[in-house]
Amino acid sequence: MDKGDLQPGLYLISTPIGNARDITLRAMDTLAGADVLAAEDTRTLRRLMEIHGIALNGRKIVAYHDHNAQSARPGLMKALAEGRSVAYASDAGTPLVADPGFGLVRSAREEGYSVTAVPGASAALAALTVAGLPTDRFLFQGFLPAKSGARRAVLTDLSAIHATLVIYESPHRIAATLDDAVTVLGPDRQAALCRELTKKFEETRLGSLADLARSVADDPPRGEIVLLIEPAPDTAPEPGDVDDDIRELLGSMTLKEAVARVAGMHGLKRRDVYQRALALRDDAE
């Protein structure tokens, strides 16, 4: 495809998440034919184009990321207003999926410009295909908060969801995230830790959350990580089981921690467990 052959509009290009050969033929055509190129990381896109022999032909690659979106967006919108084709690529994977681009797409839609997906690689979908956990229903969480308190609050909100949880995590935070997941969701929830997907050292670790926490402590993983956690159990717990778990955990942790753990273990709302825990504690005093 020659430069300028594309119809005017915004094209969202999914790029490889590791293996450079995972780019699609359509993505290469779009990169070759777009009037304007934009990227989360200009060096990454330039290198990808070099690998596949896609010439710039005098075009510059405009940087567009979370830190410069407000200043870079007007220029891209001006190109769309002039009837030009604009191709935008994330650093890796699909734009807008835990990556920048939402504001650009919304602005383009509001102004009535065509927006076209050029689909391809996605770490979330790649992990779901290899993990062996249920795929009929899943929830993409993306990255959890960096601080433990906020992270546990989000995990508590997710604890009763009957869908496989898909979480992105960095190698330096995965140990803390697994520790919090064990506390909130319970040690026995089955999970998969997928790292370096499509790359030379791709690895998937399977087991309970407790198993994975121990594995990460013994052998810290490198590279970007997708953590998948099986859905909350469908069966409602017996009240006596909930009370027993609350009593047991109150002997070894704070009320707040015990409530979070029991809510995650049984797929219950935290406020309901909290009220029951208060009653049991008052009865014991």
TrEMBL record:
| Chief site of localization | cytoplasm
Describe the location of the Tetrapyrrole methylase domain by residue ranges.
10-213
Q: What is its EC number?
A: 2.1.1.198
Q: Which InterPro entries match?
A: 4pyrrol_Mease, 4pyrrol_Methylase_sf, 4pyrrole_Mease_sub1, 4pyrrole_Mease_sub2, rRNA_ssu_MeTfrase_I, RsmI_HTH
Q: Does the keyword rRNA processing apply?
A: yes
Q: What does the record give as the reaction this protein catalyses?
A: cytidine(1402) in 16S rRNA + S-adenosyl-L-methionine = 2'-O-methylcytidine(1402) in 16S rRNA + S-adenosyl-L-homocysteine + H(+)
Provide the GO MF annotations for this entry. rRNA (cytosine-2'-O-)-methyltransferase activity
Keywords carried by this UniProt record: Cytoplasm, Methyltransferase, rRNA processing, S-adenosyl-L-methionine, Transferase
Q: What does the UniProt entry say about where the protein is found?
A: Cytoplasm
Is Nuclease found in the keyword set? Answer: no
Q: Which Gene3D superfamilies match?
A: Cobalt-precorrin-4 Transmethylase, Domain 1, Methyltransferase, Cobalt-precorrin-4 Transmethylase, Domain 2
Outline the extent of the RsmI HTH domain. Answer: 237-281
Q: Name one GO cellular component term.
A: cytoplasm
Q: Name one Pfam family in it.
A: TP_methylase
Q: Which parts of the chain are coiled coil? A: none
What family does the database annotate?
A: Belongs to the methyltransferase superfamily. RsmI family.
* Stated role: Catalyzes the 2'-O-methylation of the ribose of cytidine 1402 (C1402) in 16S rRNA.
User: What is the protein's name according to its record?
Assistant: Ribosomal RNA small subunit methyltransferase I
* Organism this protein belongs to: Pseudaestuariivita atlantica
